[in-house]
Amino acid sequence: MIKQVLLLFCFASALTLSVSESKSASVQPHAAESFSVGYIQMKTAANCSYLVVISTSCSSPKFTADKIGITFGDAYGNEVYEPRLDDPVSRTFEQCSSDTFQIDGACASPICYVYLYRSGAENGWKPESVKIYGYNSQPITFNFNTSIPNGTWYGYNRCETSSSSYQLYPQKWLMSLVLGFVLSFWL
Questions:
Q1: CA–CA separation, 23 vs 49, rounded Å?
Q2: CA 131, CA 139: separation in Å to the nearest integer?
Q3: Using only C-alpha atoms, what is the Rg of the chain?
Q4: How far is the C-alpha of 108 from the C-alpha of 129, rounded, in Å?
């Protein structure tokens, strides 16, 4: 009886560890692995409105002439894309400031990822945070406080999809299962 309980415990532990490990979300901003802007533009229809507040860090340069874009969405493939948020005339993205944008796009809920794009010769534009007020969901804040690399989509993906969030790692659960068998015969 003890052997079966031990075996069941080892199997449950292995399954829990492998599932929980794969569910961890990115806690630091990172470069997007792959991204197709053309697909987003063709796929989405402008039918929801979002309020996006981008705060620029006080450690950012006083102002920037860089071209800044944003994309965000949900785990179901609903994406919103705005290629140009910057406006040198209105002096957006100045040091220690917040800029508010109304962006229309596909209805995404809940929003779980955001990426910023910076293009320009200037280094150092440093967003502090991005807060998105969206369709049918609570506002969500993504804290950056780091410079955006030139020519790269950079941000967060906190989405949990069926293809990635519950992916099992066979090596770990198999090793735990084998260990359970060995221990059950040893005891």
A1: 30
A2: 7
A3: 22
A4: 20
Residue 54 near residue 101, CB atoms below 8 Å? yes
Q: Closest by alpha carbon to 61, among 37, 32, 97?
A: 97
User: What is the reported pLDDT for 124?
Assistant: 75
Predicted pLDDT of residue 140: 96
Identify the pLDDT of residue 163: 42
Q: Tokens for 174?
A: 């198999």
Q: 24 exposed, middle or buried (CB, 10 Å; 0-12, 13-18, 19+)?
A: exposed
What's the sign of the alpha-carbon dihedral 19, 25, 28, 33? positive
For the record, the structure tokens of 35 come out as 């991204």
**CA–CA separation, 159 vs 76, rounded Å?**
9
Backbone region of residue 16 per phi and psi (left: phi > 0; alpha: psi in -120 to 50; beta: other values) = alpha
Give me 130's structure tokens: 């991005």
Rounded average pLDDT per 10-residue block, the chain, 187 residues: 52 43 50 59 68 96 90 94 89 94 93 94 86 90 94 92 41 49 57
- What's this model's pTM, rounded to 2 decimal places? 0.68
Q: What pLDDT was estimated at residue 98?
A: 97
* Cβ atoms 32, 73 nearer than 8 A: no
Helix (H) or strand (E) holding 130: strand 127-133
